[in-house]
Amino acid sequence: MRALQLGFLVTLFACAPEQSVLGRAYDLHVPKGADAQTPLPLLILAHGYAVNGAIQDAVFAFSKQVEAKQFLYALPNGTPDRLGKRFWNATNACCNFQDLPVDDVAFFRALIDDVKAQRAVKPGHVFVVGHSNGAFMALRLACEASDVIDGIVAVSGSTWDDFARCPDGRKIPVLLVHGVADTVIPYEGREGLYPSAHETGARFARRAGCEPTWVDVDRADFAGNADPETRREAITCTPAFELWSMDGVGHLPAFDDRWPAAAFDWLEGHAR
Questions:
Q1: CATH at 109
Q2: What is residue 140's three-state secondary structure?
Q3: By CB distance 3.0 to 4.6 Å, which of 89, 95, 137, 249 could disulfide with 102?
Q4: Cα 267 to the center of its chain, rounded Å
Protein backbone atom coordinates (compact mmCIF):
# COMPACT_ATOMS: atom_id res chain seq x y z
CA MET A 1 0.00 0.00 0.00
CA ARG A 2 2.83 2.42 0.88
CA ALA A 3 4.44 1.73 -2.52
CA LEU A 4 1.16 2.44 -4.31
CA GLN A 5 0.69 5.68 -2.38
CA LEU A 6 4.26 6.69 -3.14
CA GLY A 7 3.83 6.03 -6.84
CA PHE A 8 0.57 7.94 -6.92
CA LEU A 9 2.03 10.99 -5.19
CA VAL A 10 5.17 11.01 -7.32
CA THR A 11 2.97 10.91 -10.42
CA LEU A 12 0.66 13.58 -9.02
CA PHE A 13 3.41 16.07 -8.33
CA ALA A 14 5.35 15.21 -11.49
CA CYS A 15 2.27 16.21 -13.44
CA ALA A 16 1.61 19.38 -11.46
CA PRO A 17 2.55 22.67 -13.17
CA GLU A 18 6.16 23.46 -12.31
CA GLN A 19 7.44 26.83 -11.23
CA SER A 20 11.05 27.88 -11.72
CA VAL A 21 13.40 30.19 -9.87
CA LEU A 22 17.16 30.63 -10.34
CA GLY A 23 16.93 27.97 -13.02
CA ARG A 24 15.56 25.39 -10.59
CA ALA A 25 12.06 23.92 -10.68
CA TYR A 26 9.63 23.54 -7.80
CA ASP A 27 5.99 22.55 -7.45
CA LEU A 28 3.41 24.82 -5.86
CA HIS A 29 0.19 23.30 -4.54
CA VAL A 30 -2.72 25.72 -4.09
CA PRO A 31 -6.01 24.89 -2.31
CA LYS A 32 -8.89 24.38 -4.70
CA GLY A 33 -10.88 27.53 -5.28
CA ALA A 34 -8.31 29.81 -3.65
CA ASP A 35 -7.87 33.13 -5.42
CA ALA A 36 -4.50 34.79 -5.81
CA GLN A 37 -5.48 37.83 -3.72
CA THR A 38 -6.54 36.07 -0.48
CA PRO A 39 -3.48 35.81 1.81
CA LEU A 40 -2.65 32.22 2.79
CA PRO A 41 0.19 30.72 4.84
CA LEU A 42 3.08 29.28 2.85
CA LEU A 43 4.66 25.96 3.84
CA ILE A 44 7.87 24.79 2.13
CA LEU A 45 9.03 21.18 2.47
CA ALA A 46 12.78 20.52 2.33
CA HIS A 47 13.44 16.87 1.47
CA GLY A 48 16.15 14.57 2.76
CA TYR A 49 19.39 13.68 0.98
CA ALA A 50 19.06 11.69 -2.27
CA VAL A 51 15.27 12.01 -2.60
CA ASN A 52 13.05 14.84 -3.88
CA GLY A 53 10.08 16.89 -2.76
CA ALA A 54 7.41 14.53 -4.05
CA ILE A 55 8.97 11.50 -2.36
CA GLN A 56 9.33 13.42 0.90
CA ASP A 57 5.68 14.40 0.76
CA ALA A 58 4.71 10.77 0.25
CA VAL A 59 6.15 10.17 3.74
CA PHE A 60 5.17 13.39 5.53
CA ALA A 61 1.91 13.89 3.58
CA PHE A 62 1.42 17.61 4.09
CA SER A 63 -0.39 17.56 0.75
CA LYS A 64 -3.32 15.86 2.53
CA GLN A 65 -3.68 18.93 4.76
CA VAL A 66 -3.67 21.64 2.07
CA GLU A 67 -7.45 21.73 1.61
CA ALA A 68 -8.38 21.37 5.29
CA LYS A 69 -5.79 23.85 6.58
CA GLN A 70 -5.83 26.19 3.54
CA PHE A 71 -2.17 26.93 2.88
CA LEU A 72 0.15 27.25 -0.09
CA TYR A 73 2.54 24.32 -0.31
CA ALA A 74 5.88 24.45 -2.13
CA LEU A 75 7.97 21.38 -2.95
CA PRO A 76 11.48 22.41 -4.09
CA ASN A 77 14.26 20.03 -5.06
CA GLY A 78 17.90 20.17 -4.03
CA THR A 79 20.80 20.15 -6.48
CA PRO A 80 22.02 16.79 -7.87
CA ASP A 81 25.57 16.04 -6.81
CA ARG A 82 28.06 14.15 -9.00
CA LEU A 83 26.36 10.89 -8.03
CA GLY A 84 22.96 12.25 -9.07
CA LYS A 85 21.77 12.52 -5.45
CA ARG A 86 19.90 15.68 -4.54
CA PHE A 87 21.22 17.65 -1.58
CA TRP A 88 20.90 20.94 0.29
CA ASN A 89 24.08 22.85 1.11
CA ALA A 90 23.15 23.17 4.78
CA THR A 91 26.19 22.71 7.05
CA ASN A 92 29.68 21.28 6.74
CA ALA A 93 28.28 18.01 8.18
CA CYS A 94 25.32 17.62 5.82
CA CYS A 95 25.15 17.21 2.93
CA ASN A 96 27.28 18.90 0.29
CA PHE A 97 29.79 16.06 0.35
CA GLN A 98 31.52 17.17 -2.85
CA ASP A 99 31.80 20.84 -1.86
CA LEU A 100 29.82 22.09 -4.85
CA PRO A 101 29.26 25.88 -5.14
CA VAL A 102 25.54 25.98 -4.25
CA ASP A 103 23.89 28.80 -2.28
CA ASP A 104 20.65 27.28 -0.99
CA VAL A 105 19.92 30.15 1.38
CA ALA A 106 19.68 32.38 -1.69
CA PHE A 107 17.53 29.75 -3.41
CA PHE A 108 14.96 29.62 -0.60
CA ARG A 109 14.85 33.40 -0.48
CA ALA A 110 14.24 33.53 -4.24
CA LEU A 111 11.57 30.81 -4.01
CA ILE A 112 9.66 32.78 -1.37
CA ASP A 113 9.89 35.92 -3.48
CA ASP A 114 8.68 33.97 -6.51
CA VAL A 115 5.63 32.58 -4.69
CA LYS A 116 4.81 36.06 -3.35
CA ALA A 117 4.97 37.43 -6.89
CA GLN A 118 2.22 34.98 -7.89
CA ARG A 119 0.04 34.66 -4.79
CA ALA A 120 -0.86 36.63 -1.68
CA VAL A 121 1.09 35.16 1.25
CA LYS A 122 -0.16 35.81 4.77
CA PRO A 123 2.32 38.07 6.59
CA GLY A 124 4.21 36.29 9.36
CA HIS A 125 3.21 32.84 8.07
CA VAL A 126 6.07 31.53 5.93
CA PHE A 127 7.21 28.16 7.27
CA VAL A 128 9.81 25.52 6.40
CA VAL A 129 9.63 21.84 7.37
CA GLY A 130 12.66 19.67 6.68
CA HIS A 131 13.74 16.07 7.13
CA SER A 132 17.35 14.95 7.64
CA ASN A 133 19.43 17.03 5.20
CA GLY A 134 16.31 19.18 4.81
CA ALA A 135 16.17 19.61 8.61
CA PHE A 136 19.78 20.82 8.62
CA MET A 137 18.73 23.25 5.89
CA ALA A 138 15.67 24.46 7.81
CA LEU A 139 17.86 25.15 10.84
CA ARG A 140 20.36 27.04 8.70
CA LEU A 141 17.50 29.14 7.35
CA ALA A 142 16.45 29.89 10.95
CA CYS A 143 19.95 31.36 11.33
CA GLU A 144 20.35 33.16 8.01
CA ALA A 145 16.89 33.83 6.57
CA SER A 146 14.73 34.59 9.61
CA ASP A 147 13.81 37.92 8.04
CA VAL A 148 11.69 36.03 5.48
CA ILE A 149 10.87 32.78 7.34
CA ASP A 150 8.58 32.77 10.38
CA GLY A 151 8.97 29.28 11.84
CA ILE A 152 10.54 25.89 11.14
CA VAL A 153 10.08 22.21 11.93
CA ALA A 154 13.28 20.15 11.75
CA VAL A 155 12.86 16.35 11.73
CA SER A 156 15.94 14.16 12.31
CA GLY A 157 18.44 16.95 11.84
CA SER A 158 20.80 19.28 13.67
CA THR A 159 22.72 22.53 13.35
CA TRP A 160 26.30 23.80 13.04
CA ASP A 161 28.78 22.22 15.44
CA ASP A 162 30.41 25.67 15.54
CA PHE A 163 27.31 27.70 16.39
CA ALA A 164 29.25 30.92 15.83
CA ARG A 165 28.34 30.24 12.19
CA CYS A 166 24.70 31.02 13.07
CA PRO A 167 24.63 34.83 12.90
CA ASP A 168 22.48 36.94 15.17
CA GLY A 169 19.17 38.05 13.73
CA ARG A 170 15.42 37.79 14.15
CA LYS A 171 14.40 34.89 16.39
CA ILE A 172 11.70 32.50 15.11
CA PRO A 173 9.92 29.45 16.58
CA VAL A 174 11.79 26.16 16.21
CA LEU A 175 10.23 22.72 16.61
CA LEU A 176 12.65 19.78 16.66
CA VAL A 177 11.34 16.25 16.07
CA HIS A 178 13.78 13.38 16.51
CA GLY A 179 13.65 9.61 16.90
CA VAL A 180 15.60 8.53 19.97
CA ALA A 181 16.71 5.38 18.11
CA ASP A 182 18.00 7.32 15.06
CA THR A 183 21.32 5.83 13.90
CA VAL A 184 21.74 8.03 10.80
CA ILE A 185 21.65 11.41 12.56
CA PRO A 186 21.92 10.26 16.19
CA TYR A 187 19.66 11.87 18.75
CA GLU A 188 22.74 12.42 20.95
CA GLY A 189 24.65 14.10 18.10
CA ARG A 190 28.15 13.35 16.80
CA GLU A 191 31.11 14.98 18.47
CA GLY A 192 32.85 17.41 16.14
CA LEU A 193 30.04 17.30 13.57
CA TYR A 194 26.75 18.41 15.13
CA PRO A 195 25.11 18.71 18.57
CA SER A 196 22.39 16.56 20.14
CA ALA A 197 18.69 17.28 19.77
CA HIS A 198 18.49 18.90 23.23
CA GLU A 199 21.63 20.97 22.64
CA THR A 200 20.41 22.09 19.22
CA GLY A 201 17.26 23.54 20.77
CA ALA A 202 19.23 24.98 23.67
CA ARG A 203 21.57 26.85 21.30
CA PHE A 204 18.67 28.57 19.57
CA ALA A 205 17.12 29.42 22.95
CA ARG A 206 20.39 30.97 24.17
CA ARG A 207 20.57 32.91 20.91
CA ALA A 208 17.12 34.30 21.81
CA GLY A 209 18.35 35.31 25.28
CA CYS A 210 16.54 32.52 27.15
CA GLU A 211 17.69 30.07 29.82
CA PRO A 212 17.78 26.69 28.03
CA THR A 213 15.96 24.57 30.60
CA TRP A 214 13.79 21.83 29.12
CA VAL A 215 10.39 21.29 30.75
CA ASP A 216 8.14 18.26 30.15
CA VAL A 217 4.86 19.19 28.43
CA ASP A 218 3.01 15.96 27.65
CA ARG A 219 3.11 12.82 25.52
CA ALA A 220 1.52 12.30 22.11
CA ASP A 221 0.95 9.53 19.59
CA PHE A 222 1.87 10.18 15.97
CA ALA A 223 2.84 6.65 14.87
CA GLY A 224 -0.52 5.05 14.21
CA ASN A 225 -1.10 3.08 17.39
CA ALA A 226 -2.35 3.64 20.92
CA ASP A 227 1.14 4.08 22.38
CA PRO A 228 2.06 7.73 23.09
CA GLU A 229 5.62 7.36 21.83
CA THR A 230 6.38 11.08 21.61
CA ARG A 231 7.67 13.06 24.61
CA ARG A 232 7.05 16.76 24.14
CA GLU A 233 9.38 19.19 25.92
CA ALA A 234 9.66 22.97 25.75
CA ILE A 235 11.94 25.78 26.82
CA THR A 236 10.15 28.70 28.45
CA CYS A 237 10.96 31.36 25.88
CA THR A 238 9.59 33.70 23.26
CA PRO A 239 9.67 32.62 20.48
CA ALA A 240 8.81 28.99 21.17
CA PHE A 241 11.39 26.19 21.19
CA GLU A 242 10.16 22.62 21.52
CA LEU A 243 11.56 19.10 21.13
CA TRP A 244 9.33 16.14 20.30
CA SER A 245 11.37 13.00 21.11
CA MET A 246 10.00 9.79 19.62
CA ASP A 247 10.91 6.77 21.75
CA GLY A 248 11.83 3.64 19.80
CA VAL A 249 11.75 5.51 16.48
CA GLY A 250 14.59 5.75 13.97
CA HIS A 251 15.64 8.22 11.29
CA LEU A 252 12.44 8.20 9.23
CA PRO A 253 9.42 8.24 11.55
CA ALA A 254 6.35 6.38 10.31
CA PHE A 255 4.02 9.32 10.91
CA ASP A 256 0.28 8.92 10.59
CA ASP A 257 -2.00 11.73 9.38
CA ARG A 258 -2.09 13.32 12.82
CA TRP A 259 1.52 14.45 12.65
CA PRO A 260 1.46 16.80 9.64
CA ALA A 261 -1.72 18.38 11.00
CA ALA A 262 -0.10 18.81 14.43
CA ALA A 263 3.13 20.20 12.95
CA PHE A 264 1.27 22.74 10.83
CA ASP A 265 -0.95 23.73 13.78
CA TRP A 266 2.18 24.22 15.91
CA LEU A 267 3.66 26.58 13.33
CA GLU A 268 0.42 28.51 12.95
CA GLY A 269 -0.10 28.63 16.70
CA HIS A 270 3.34 30.20 17.28
CA ALA A 271 3.35 32.60 14.33
CA ARG A 272 3.78 36.22 15.36
A1: 3.40.50.1820
A2: helix
A3: 89
A4: 11
Q: For the whole model, what pTM was predicted?
A: 0.93
Q: Report H helices in the chain.
A: 2-15, 53-60, 66-69, 104-118, 133-144, 197-207, 258-269
Distance CA 254, CA 1 (A): 14
| Cβ 88 vs Cβ 228: under 8 Å | no
Q: Which structural domain range is residue 133 located in? A: 2-269
Residues 6+ apart with CB under 8 A from 23: none
Residue-wise over 196-217: b if at least 16 C-beta within 10 A, else e?
A: bbbebbbbbbebbebebebeee
Model confidence pLDDT, tens digit, residues 222-272:
988 778 999 999 999 999 999 999 999 999 999 999 999 999 999 999 998
Domain count within the chain: 1
